[in-house]
Amino acid sequence: MMLSRRSLLAALPLAACATTPTLSQMATDAQTVASGLSAALPSIAAIADINPITLASLQGYIADMQSAAGTIATTVGNPTTAVQMLVQAVNAAVAIVTKPPISALIPAEIETIFLAAAALLPSIEAAAGLSGATATPPAMPADAARLILKGVAGG
C-alpha cells in the first residue's frame, strides 16, 4: 500500500506536460478513484474507534463512485451527470476523512489516498467540460494522484 518517494517524484515531472484530458482518460481516472478509495476502505474499517454510521456513509459514497465510474466508462458521449455524481461523492468522502473527529483517527497515508482522489477531480471535470467546477486547486499533480490510487488498488 505504501509507495516509495522515488515513485511519487517520478510522476511529478509528467504533470507539467499534461494536456486537456480525453473522455477515455476521464473514464480511466474515474475508475482509478473508485477502486483506490474502495481498496482503502478496509483499512478504515479496521480502526476500532470509527463510528459505524460514519463507516456506512463512506461505504455509500464509495458505492456511488463505483456506480458513477461504471456509467462514465459505458456512456457514449459526455457523461456529465455521472461526473457530477462522482465529484459529489468524492468531495463528501474527503470531507469525512479530513475533518475532526475522524481525521484524528485515520493514518496520514489513508488521508493522502483520499486527497489523491480529490486531486483527480479537476482533470475529470475538465474532460467533461465542467472545468472550473472545483474551486480549489488540487493538492498534488494528477499523475502523482494516479500513482497513489493505482498503488493502493494494486493496479
Order of secondary-structure elements: HHHHHHH
Radius of gyration: 15 Å
Per DSSP, what share of the residues sits in E-state strands of 2 or more residues?
under 5%
Given as residue ranges, the uncertain stretches (5+ residues, pLDDT < 50) are: 8-18
Structural class per helix/strand content?
A: mainly alpha
Mean pLDDT: 86
What's the total helix number?
7
Q: Using DSSP, what is the number of strands?
A: 0
Number of domains: 1
- For the termini, the CA-CA separation is 11 Å
What is the secondary structure topology, with strand pairs?
Blueprint: H1 5-15, H2 23-45, H3 52-74, H4 80-98, H5 102-105, H6 108-127, H7 142-153
Helix pairs in contact: 1-7, 2-3, 2-6, 2-7, 3-4, 4-6, 6-7
Question: How does this model look, in words?
Answer:
By secondary structure, the protein is mainly alpha-helical. 72% of the residues lie in helices and 0% in strands. It is built from seven helices and no strands. Helix 2 runs antiparallel to helix 3. The model is unreliable at 8-18 (pLDDT under 50).
Task: Provide key terms for this protein.
globular; 7 helices; 155 residues
Summarize this entry quickly.
This protein is mostly helical and 155 residues long. The protein is 72% helix and 0% strand.
